[in-house]
């Protein structure tokens, strides 16, 4: 059996879009499912759209996600170069374009932009779809070469049969067949000598012995033309796996151009790379079980092309947020603490035990960026309205809150040891002595200590972290606020 070889071939034109990362993941899983080879190839022939630093961004994204490539520009391999512009400099695309012309699969075209525009205007005037009818198609090879020798600029266009059909089998969409008459004769080699994607990807895939091509379903319509090139050369055609689009809603594709989040954006918003990767694995693929949380190693075992959907997948940020929270809670406290530290250092300047703050944060945080706002009350007690002391579910009102705070303050002032256990035991004993509900004591204390409606941790944990003096000071403020109204 031929060893599986897949390639991720991004263009270095900016951030890593979610759809591109999903393609990389599926390419990786298709290869690793069968102990195959995953290749990184940089397609940088679209010189006008190149973005400085984008190649490094591709490397760093794959590394953060654990998608280690077996061959690529940075590590080499037996099929290099793995950068299209370097391959172009070696002359391979021009060489293969000339071979294709000799085999009858392409021709030289000397038409100007005006010629093409004129035909397009005529098609629009007639209300028919535009397909360029190239007069150079019937030019003899000798005549074309003479014009080139005379210094005329040219492109290389593909030859498409006027009749018949071209078909292929896709692993997701099944049998696809199109009439050749609807296929346009695309440019394969531009006048500046650069190949178009439609040509370079065929040559590179063949030369790198790629066995499985995974890409978005927007390429379904172009695949028949690719196959005509393969057939003209007499080359083996790879297996095709076309993926459904990732949508922001039922009508719009997820797109960075429209302001939708890239991988880098999501990481900057506090999402974990492993959680992002896990989530996008499920955008277009469904496992055989109800399991949703997968490590990369588990994905390698569970993934199958047969369970890739034909239907578009809608990106649900709420589902990603839930999954991110699951990842955070599955970590050790030490692992989470290391991730939380930059946010804690930003939001908490006082002399508090940051590990203890991480301890109360971990069960409640969904994204890392939530941390700053959740813990800012440790440094400064915010101004708050005493209406917060009234809570229907906790069965508290201002009168109950004032009574509870006064008695809790007296008790805690005389506590000989300021530990979480001591605070817990003393307050719970007091609640029992007074014959009140837990919330009637703990809600007022927590409110006085934090000045917030919602906090990580409850009254006991927060009091312990604040320290005895600061906790008592804040309870005094709460008593004063409630006393003013009484």
UniProtKB/TrEMBL annotation:
UniProt-listed Enzyme Commission number(s): 6.1.1.17
Motif 'HIGH' region boundaries: 10-20
GO MF terms held by the record: ATP binding; glutamate-tRNA ligase activity; tRNA binding; zinc ion binding
Main location group: cytoplasm
Enzyme class at the top of the EC tree: ligase
Keywords linked to the UniProt accession: Aminoacyl-tRNA synthetase, ATP-binding, Cytoplasm, Ligase, Nucleotide-binding, Protein biosynthesis
Domain Aminoacyl-tRNA synthetase class I anticodon-binding positions: 335-479
PROSITE patterns: AA_TRNA_LIGASE_I
Catalytic reaction(s) noted: tRNA(Glu) + L-glutamate + ATP = L-glutamyl-tRNA(Glu) + AMP + diphosphate
Placement of sequence motif 'KMSKS' region: 253-257
Binding positions for ATP per the UniProt entry: 256
Gene3D superfamilies xrefs: 1.10.10.350, HUPs (3.40.50.620)
Entry GO terms, CC: cytoplasm
Domain Glutamyl/glutaminyl-tRNA synthetase class Ib catalytic: 3-322
Transmembrane segments: none
Gene Ontology biological process terms from the UniProt entry: glutamyl-tRNA aminoacylation
Family to which this protein belongs: Belongs to the class-I aminoacyl-tRNA synthetase family. Glutamate--tRNA ligase type 1 subfamily.
Subunit structure as annotated in this protein's UniProt entry: Monomer.
Entry function: Catalyzes the attachment of glutamate to tRNA(Glu) in a two-step reaction: glutamate is first activated by ATP to form Glu-AMP and then transferred to the acceptor end of tRNA(Glu).
Protein name, as recorded: Glutamate--tRNA ligase
Species of provenance: Holdemania massiliensis
Species lineage: Bacteria, Bacillati, Bacillota, Erysipelotrichia, Erysipelotrichales
């Amino acid at each position: 059996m031929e060893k599986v070889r897949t390639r991720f071939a991004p263009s270095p034109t900016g951030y890593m879009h979610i759809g591109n990362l999903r393609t990389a993941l599926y390419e990786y899983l298709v290869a690793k499912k069968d102990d195959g080879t995953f290749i990184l190839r940089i397609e940088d022939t679209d010189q006008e759209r190149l973005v400085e630093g984008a190649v490094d961004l591709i490397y760093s994204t794959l590394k953060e996600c654990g998608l280690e490539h077996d061959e690529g520009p940075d590590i080499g391999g037996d099929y290099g170069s793995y950068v299209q512009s370097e391959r172009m400099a070696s002359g391979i695309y021009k060489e293969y374009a000339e071979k294709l012309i000799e085999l009858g699969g392409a021709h030289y075209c000397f038409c100007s932009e005006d010629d093409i525009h004129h035909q397009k205007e005529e098609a629009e005037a007639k209300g028919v779809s535009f397909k360029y009818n190239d007069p150079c198609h019937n030019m003899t090879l000798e005549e074309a070469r003479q014009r080139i020798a005379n210094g005329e600029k040219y492109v290389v266009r593909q030859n498409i049969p006027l009749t018949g059909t071209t078909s292929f089998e896709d692993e997701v969409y099944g049998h696809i067949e199109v009439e050749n008459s609807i296929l346009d004769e695309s440019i394969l080699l531009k006048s500046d000598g650069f190949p178009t994607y439609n040509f370079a990807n065929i040559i590179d895939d063949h030369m790198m012995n790629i066995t499985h091509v995974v890409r978005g379903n927007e390429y379904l319509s172009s695949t028949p033309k690719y196959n005509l090139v393969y057939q003209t050369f007499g080359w083996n055609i790879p297996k095709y796996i076309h993926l459904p689009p990732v949508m922001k809603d039922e009508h719009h594709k997820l797109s960075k151009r429209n302001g939708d989040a890239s991988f880098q954006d999501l990481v900057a918003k506090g999402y974990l790379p492993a959680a992002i990767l896990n989530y996008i694995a499920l955008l277009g693929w469904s496992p055989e079980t109800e399991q949703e949380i997968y490590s990369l190693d588990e994905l390698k075992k569970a993934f199958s092309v047969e369970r890739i959907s034909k239907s578009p997948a809608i990106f649900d940020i709420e589902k990603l947020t839930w999954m991110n929270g699951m990842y955070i809670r599955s970590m050790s406290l030490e692992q989470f603490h290391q991730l939380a530290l930059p946010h804690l250092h930003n939001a908490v300047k006082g002399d508090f035990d940051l590990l203890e703050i991480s301890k109360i944060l971990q069960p409640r945080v969904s994204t890392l960026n939530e941390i700053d706002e959740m813990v800012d009350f440790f440094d400064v007690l915010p101004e708050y309205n005493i209406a917060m002391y009234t809570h229907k579910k906790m069965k508290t009102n201002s009168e109950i809150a004032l009574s509870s705070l006064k008695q809790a303050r007296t008790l805690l002032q005389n506590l000989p040891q300021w530990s979480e256990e001591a605070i817990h035991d003393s307050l719970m004993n007091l609640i029992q002595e007074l014959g009140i509900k837990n919330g009637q004591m703990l809600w007022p204390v927590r409110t006085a200590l934090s000045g917030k409606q919602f906090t990580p941790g409850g009254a006991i944990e927060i009091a312990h972290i604040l320290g005895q003096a600061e906790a008592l000071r804040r309870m005094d403020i709460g008593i004063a606020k409630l006393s003013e109204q009484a």
